[in-house]
């Protein structure tokens, strides 16, 4: 009875536009008082604090702050110029350069929405100027920006790892493999589009131009090297790598590129603090709800109910659930609330937790560009100043591509597990 009461109350509050964290906390507190074990209510307050008293969670606010610094600075523009100099001259080259730039931006920020705001205004005019349709350009930018959710240091991947107790480093590598697959499929589509639509190619960059673009991008490229090299070289934990990324981005943008001033960093920290505070209270509420449901043996009951069910059927259900949820609420909320409930049941039937992480986050990445309430749809409306209908129409072909990639990731687990198995 307790789980049904909790879910019904939480959903009812959400439908009344009560904030997600408050809906979860209220539903959990009421259910605990009505159906919980004979424990003092103060234990719920303790669980709220313990939910965020985890060292790995420190990586989340630090990467968010680093992403805010990067999105307001010079790093994105230098990466675009480098990628355009390398592949801009081939058929579909500017579109492919956009995909590669968004992936690289994700490798230094970990936040998908930041790529739309930072990369979108820079590449959109260039794509239009070279003959790409506005709808294609918008759909490509919004979809490619979701690579930031897959490639390390993805904030969503960190949250999943913390919530289900998986290794952050292993889940990062699974996400990287999934991200590479999506990059390849998007690049193939860009090439095919350019061939069919007879899109012109950019002028081939000279060797000196490429070297100049590479020199300009050396410091931005140093950031993913710092993060990946530090984590997988055994120098940093992911949390320490996030702190190093903050310092590196701040020094590069303020003292070397001089795109930001120290007072700008203060303003950025204020904006980041609002995002971080919202996320941390959501983590606290979600962990408390998970603790109560675990007391009620909900994960165990779910695992028992799936005994004997074919794994492919369960994975299809997981895809459907997270894809639907991703269309309505933000990815971080979905990861925090649902992952601890789904992971034990999936692992009970033999689904690897690292593989499941790639599936969950991939679904939520697709949800970001899916109507009716995908986050990137509304960011795209504001960034490119076009209507809701135009944005939705532009992303539909790309949603089909991402679903093909999702099915490959889901039913070919070796694709996402080989890299963690080889590297760690």
Task: Walk me through this protein's architecture.
The protein is mainly α and about 425 residues long. It has one domain. Helix content is about 80%, strand content about 0%. α7 (about 110-130) runs antiparallel to α8.
Contiguous uncertain segments of 5+ residues? none
Give a short account of the largest sheet.
none
Shape: globular
Give the rounded overall mean pLDDT.
Answer: 85
Number of helical segments with 4 or more residues: 20
Distance between the termini: 43 Å
Question: What's the structural blueprint in terms of helices and strands?
Answer:
Elements (H helix, E strand, L loop, with lengths): L1 H14 L4 H16 L6 H11 L6 H14 L2 H13 L5 H17 L2 H18 L4 H11 L10 H10 L3 H30 L9 H26 L5 H19 L5 H34 L2 H8 L5 H16 L4 H18 L4 H15 L7 H10 L3 H24 L1 H11 L1
Task: Briefly summarize what is shown.
With 424 residues, this protein is mostly helical. The protein contains 20 helices and no strands.
Features:
424 residues, globular, single chain, mainly alpha
């Amino acid at each position: 009875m307790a789980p049904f009461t909790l879910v019904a109350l939480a959903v009812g509050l959400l439908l009344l536009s009560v904030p997600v964290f408050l809906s979860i906390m209220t539903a959990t507190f009421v259910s605990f008082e009505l159906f919980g074990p004979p424990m003092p209510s103060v234990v719920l307050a303790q669980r709220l604090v313990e939910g965020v008293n985890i060292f790995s969670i420190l990586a989340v606010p630090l990467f968010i702050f680093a992403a805010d610094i990067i999105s307001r600075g010079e790093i994105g523009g230098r990466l675009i110029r480098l990628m355009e100099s390398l592949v801009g001259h081939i058929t579909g080259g500017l579109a492919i350069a956009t995909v590669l730039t968004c992936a690289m931006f994700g490798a230094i920020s970990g936040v998908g929405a930041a790529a739309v705001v930072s990369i979108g205004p820079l590449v959109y005019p260039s794509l239009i100027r070279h003959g790409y349709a506005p709808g294609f350009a918008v759909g490509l930018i919004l979809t490619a920006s979701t690579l930031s959710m897959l490639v390390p240091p993805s904030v969503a991947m960190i949250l999943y790892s913390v919530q289900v107790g998986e290794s952050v480093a292993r889940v990062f590598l699974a996400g990287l493999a999934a991200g590479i697959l999506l990059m390849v499929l998007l690049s193939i589509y860009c090439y095919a589009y350019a061939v069919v639509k007879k899109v012109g190619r950019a002028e081939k960059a000279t060797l000196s131009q490429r070297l100049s673009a590479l020199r300009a991008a050396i410091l931005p490229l140093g950031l993913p090297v710092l993060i990946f090299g530090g984590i997988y070289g055994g120098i940093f934990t992911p949390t320490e790598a996030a702190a190093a990324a903050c310092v590196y981005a701040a020094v590069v943008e303020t003292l070397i590129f001089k795109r930001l001033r120290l007072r700008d960093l203060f303003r950025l920290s204020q904006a980041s603090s609002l995002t971080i505070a919202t996320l941390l209270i959501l983590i606290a509420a979600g962990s408390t709800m998970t603790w109560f449901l675990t007391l009620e043996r909900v994960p165990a009951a779910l695992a028992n109910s799936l005994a004997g069910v074919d794994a492919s059927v369960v994975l299809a259900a997981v895809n459907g659930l997270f894809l639907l949820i991703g269309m309505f609420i933000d990815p971080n909320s979905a990861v925090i609330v649902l992952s601890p409930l789904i992971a034990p049941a999936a692992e009970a039937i033999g689904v690897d937790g690292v593989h499941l992480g790639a599936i969950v986050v991939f679904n939520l990445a697709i949800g970001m560009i899916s109507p009716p309430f995908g986050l990137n749809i509304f960011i795209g409306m504001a960034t490119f100043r076009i209507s809701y209908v135009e944005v939705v129409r532009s992303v539909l072909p790309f949603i089909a591509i991402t679903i093909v990639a999702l099915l490959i990731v889901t039913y070919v687990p070796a694709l996402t597990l080989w890299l963690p198995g080889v590297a760690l």
